[in-house]
Amino acid sequence: MKGVFLDYSSLDKNDLNFNDLKSYFDDFKLYTSTTPEQLLERIQDVDVVISNKVVLAAEHIQQAKNLKLILISATGTNNVDLVQAKQHGIVVCNCQGYGTAAVAQHTLALMLALATSLIQYDRAVKQGQWNNSPIFCLLDFPIVELSGKTLGIVGYGELGQAVARLAEAFGMRVLLAALPNRKMDASRIALAELLPQVDFLTLHCPLTEQTRDLIGAKEFELMKNSAFLINCARGGIVNEQALANALRQGQIAGAATDVLTVEPPTQGNVLLGEDIPNLIITPHSAWGSVDARQRIVSQLTENLKAFINGNVIRQVN
Predict the structure, then answer these.
(1) What letter would DSSP give residue 302?
(2) Which of 84, 97, 165, 209 could join 58 via S-S bond, C-beta 3.0 to 4.6 A?
């Protein structure tokens, strides 16, 4: 059996073990990346293609004559034409739930950094402000305790639930937002009712037409000016211009995001403005612990083994 991993460098930083996965192939090639010009040559005679972000469009699938299985080394499936794959009898499987612990941990890290003014204090010390303090410590920036504060969670799947457990360990009260066009139940609160109550708002819902710009100018007006926003979900759920405005105008106290609408922001981004106060941006790295990335490799192996044994798991088409 022949296989190819088209863009393993998006997953591996020379710290992962691929031996179990390789053992199922007679011929297995790992490419750090694959350009559109290289794609057809690399997939035309293989049985299994693994891709993280390389696009497998209809024309590629049509010309890959031996292809039987596409393994996506991520959860999102937008890089594969699922309809075309199904029409050609090609099974497509993804990976799921591999980054729950890492993203939940990152979410709490961002919350703590905002609550403790961690970035500001680190910068102040390195700039010599502590050296010049008339007292033994430096208390120039606000410090907020999580205990007793209210956390609003938008998206209460596996990730949202993991964040809730961590927040409750810090003594926080957790409120759940009702997503647009979802059936209301007693445990969920309409977003307009939830926003004025929260001290922290964290997002863990998918980006859909219903959630695009879910948090915009109107929503920021409803929030306390002492509240913080954390987005470890997807760029586009928060309107970036509205967030920049809200921070500049002091409508909220601070924000942290691990995602932007265009990644990487090669053409710049409104949130990269140097005059935006109390904004932390991390480079879509919340998911990227070595444990989570090795878990992806394990799930790829599980998916492949299950396919070979005729018991497909994590199939998305």
Answers:
(1) H
(2) 84
Helix H segments across 27-170?
Answer: 36-43, 58-63, 82-87, 100-115, 118-126, 158-169
Domain coordinates in residue numbering, the chain: 2-98+290-309, 99-281
Query: Does the annotation count 284 as an active-site position?
Result: yes
2-98+290-309 and 99-281 agree in CATH topology: yes
Q: What is the CATH superfamily name and number for domain 99-281?
A: NAD(P)-binding Rossmann-like Domain (3.40.50.720)
Query: pTM value?
Result: 0.91
Q: 100-115 vs 158-169: helix axis angle to the nearest 10? A: 40
Q: CA 225, CA 196: separation in Å to the nearest integer?
A: 10
> Going by CATH, does the domain composed of 2-98+290-309 fall within 3.40.640.10?
no
**Is 263 tagged catalytic?**
yes
Catalytic annotation, pick one of 60, 234, 295, 314: 234
Instruction: Write out pLDDT tens, residues 223-262.
Output: 999 999 999 999 999 999 999 999 999 999 999 999 999 9
Q: Which of 168, 193, 221, 263 is catalytic?
A: 263
